[in-house]
């Protein structure tokens, strides 16, 4: 079976989970594997129910004290055991902070090939071949795993989320024994910021501002537009380094990858390190006073002008439209 390792937060499946289920189903068809198994570790019952409702054949769950919070060694042991249980030729994880931490550990333990940040999947000569963008999206590389078992991370938004299955899936609880001496690092506490806006990596609309906004005070315009659109707020490393915005809002190579339906950016030049984090966006709207700014090369719509003049008009217009 193809195994997909799902992610949950506060009792809900994360968006990437349904995308992983879809990627697993596609890989199953390509490889002629005998089904799709989804794995949830330390998940709330509501998330397990949501996983069972996805198009899959088997839902594996791992519970217990060792899995109450994330501990890389323990969770990797659970993934490895699940992969062995279903004889998985392919283990899929999200290309998220969680998946990027876990996938190399799992691949290391299983002596498996690791394919990172996959976009699309095909099969050539009986081997799974995946596409991934490299050099900040400038080149698409085709990568193949040469090992019998492959571990892969899937880029958010690369696959449309799986819908409900046609027949009910089975559930199996796995007993995973973890020697506490092997766990060197454990998340002790997760403190959430009082979030009034959607999470950047999950948002369907993102509004981001860069150094072109001139002053941190002017970010209230970005926030106002974001709130009218129900959007997340993002930014560039330049403003984070300047102390204008928190790192949690940084988009790009050393920040977060976003994949919204609409990405509006204001006063952002479009450095490769920023662009690499926004390539999953469906529609990109850019506002920049420099018509030659690199951001326009990847934009679907561009407005050349002063952001501080344009944004108040845009906000009024969005408010008027209701
Ligand atoms: C190893 C490394 C990793 C990095 N990682 C990241 C990363 O993860 N994310 C990231 O974003 N960057 C990253 N960077 C930094 C990146 O190279 C750029 O420096 C940064 O993205 C620039 O931010 P900016 O667009 O806000 O600022 P600038 O490049 O200064 O651009 C400001 C833009 O605003 C425009 N502008 C100015 N005034 C106005 C106005 N009144 N109205 C409208 N437009 C205006 C200008 O024309 C310009 O295009 C990284 C760099 C390195 C070396």
Helical stretch tally? 8
Low-confidence stretches: none
In CATH, the homologous superfamily of the largest domain goes by the name HUPs
Our measurement of the CA-to-CA distance between the termini, rounded to an integer number of angstroms, reads 48 Å
Mean pLDDT, to the nearest integer, reads 93
Structural class: alpha/beta
Tell me what portion of residues adopts beta-strand conformation.
25-35%
What count of domains describes the coordinates? Answer: 2
Reported by name, the CATH topology of the largest domain is Rossmann fold
**C-alpha Rg (nearest Å):** 21 Å
Helix content: 25-40%
Which series of helices and strands comes N to C?
EEEHEHEHEHEEEEEEEHEHEHEEH
Can you name the CATH architecture of the largest domain?
3-Layer(aba) Sandwich
3D shape: globular
Describe the structure in brief:
The chain is an alpha/beta fold.
General description of the model:
It contains eight helices and 17 strands. It has 322 residues and is α/β, with parallel strands linked by helices. The protein folds into two domains: 2-182, Rossmann fold; 205-321, Rossmann fold, CATH 3.40.50.1220. The chain has a seven-stranded parallel β-sheet with strand order 7-11-6-1-4-5-12, sandwiched between helices. Strands 14-13-15-16-17 form a five-stranded parallel β-sheet. A three-stranded antiparallel β-sheet has the order 8-9-10. Strand 2 (8-9) and strand 3 form a beta hairpin. Helix 3 (72-85) packs across helix 4 (97-110) and helix 5 (219-229) runs parallel beside helix 8. The model has no long low-confidence stretch (mean pLDDT 93). Bound molecules: flavin-adenine dinucleotide (FAD). Residues 210-212, 236-239, 250-255, 267-269, 271, 273-274, 277, 287-290, 293, 306-308 line the site of flavin-adenine dinucleotide.
